[in-house]
Amino acid sequence: MARRAGPLTGSTARPVRGGRDAAARRIAVVTATSSAPGLVGFAVRRADFADPRLEAFLGEHLADMAATSPPESVHALDLAGLDRPSVRLWTAYDGDALIATGGIAVVHGPGGEPQAGHEELKSMRTHAGYRGRGLARAMVRLLVGDAAARGVRRISLETGTEDYFAAARGLYASEGFAPCEPFGTYVEDENSVFMTRWL
To answer: What residue spans define the domains of the chain?
Structure first.
């Protein structure tokens, strides 16, 4: 999980801040479910940052990360950190219930410069009641497909060394991610594992 990626363990969308119109959102949903069939049957769409369910869901994610790792090793983004042009956050709903999120963000170097073609998984989470159904794998594949379609060449992630993240590390390895050195603005941390995949 990208941390932090925690465990990733239809209603009509309101307008998404950032200017995506309704037609573009419908295309995004079709693309998402075709690249990740495990999400078929759920409403998959780009995040609506005005949705209070999203704020609550991500708040639980941040609380879990804070309870699992020391503060200096928690790299999860809050709502404001995700609501940026450089981040693409996807959501999955079962009826009115938000059940999963997954994001992909442009990697920036130590000087703040964007690293073209290199993005990072963020905010990977599945509602506890939906874990074990393959949603995590489906979300990873959705994000990889989304990145590949935009010409991204490399996807990386940071997750934890704790047992809490063991299933996530196994999932990422099975999806082609391999251990790597710290990337972007990260530094060596005994509580962090870094992984990457070339597309």
So the answer is: 22-198
